[in-house]
Amino acid sequence: MEKIYFTGVIISFFCLMCVRAQIEYSPRAGATVLNTRNLEPRHVGIIDGVTKMHYDNPLPNFIGSPYMEEEFKEGIMKALDGTLIRNLKFRYDIFEDRMELLINQDTAIITWPEAIEYVQIEDRKFQYEVFLLVKDIVATGYFEILYEGDFISALCQRRIKLEKDEYVVNYGGGGGTKALKMKQVKHLFVKPENSAAREIERKKDLISVLPEYEYQISTFLKENRISLKREDDFYRIVEYMDRLIKGI
Fold it and tell me: What is the rounded distance in angstroms from the CA atom of residue 70 to the CA atom of residue 32?
């Protein structure tokens, strides 16, 4: 199956201090025109059908899948200009941090995610957001929305962790396969309105988002025995923080 790259209409774009290297910002050579329902003609680039990426034809030294789910699922894509694109199937490539979709039985990749308001795959909603990678360094990536508030939202970013399959001395040795195992890991973020998303690893990270509500947040965490290891608990505390801002 050949790969094609889907290029969305660019509504707005701003410079970031740091952008992940795997994100494509220009169409491939050999452009053609694509027509689908509810979608005006777009220019797409075709990759040589003979060329195979490692996630299409995995190398022997990789175990596991780079995708959130291998199968393409029904979804909707909304552009920043309000255009709704239906009747397409999507899947999320965690390893490359990019959204794939099926068009005429070919695999397309969104190359300008800044032009997309969101992609919804069945009941999961994804947005391409700005986030703080480390202090004062900004990056971009796809996030699943766990809770979408009026002033603050809870997001989940998936990443692939590579673990080497080696022998363990305490269990009598054994050579192991030396393969790299792909393991999905989740990172939880909070995104205040009109601000970059921030990773939440400790309870004090939550308080740093709204320091003026330190007492209320600390009390809610303690009284409700909130654990940041549980997504449902994370959803609850961010929803509570959103209510604090609204004054409810």
Answer: 28
Structure-block tokens of residue 62: 């990789």
Could you read off the pLDDT of 13-31 as tens digits, one per residue? 222 222 222 222 222 222 2
From the list 108, 187, 204, the residue with the least C-alpha distance to 142 is 187
User: Which residues of 149-222 form beta strands (DSSP E)?
Assistant: 152-164, 180-192, 198-199
**Together in a domain, 91 and 114:** yes
| CA–CA dist 102, 133 (Å, integer) | 31
The number of folded domains in the chain is 2
Q: How confident is the model at residue 88 (pLDDT cuts 50, 70, 90)?
A: confident
Please state the φ and ψ torsions of residue 193, each to the nearest 5 degrees: -60, 135
pLDDT value of residue 103: 78
Domain that holds residue 8: 3-199
Residue 229 token pair? 């290891």
| Domain co-membership, 195 together with 206 | no
Considering the domain architecture, whether residues 190 and 212 belong to the same structural domain is answered as: no
> Do 246 and 151 fall into the same domain?
no
Pairwise CA distance, residues 80 & 129, whole Å? 13
- Same domain membership, residue 180 and residue 88: yes
248 and 195 in a common domain: no
CB-based contacts of 98, cutoff 8 Å, min separation 6: 22, 23, 92, 109, 110, 113, 142
Cα separation of 1 and 49, whole Å?
7
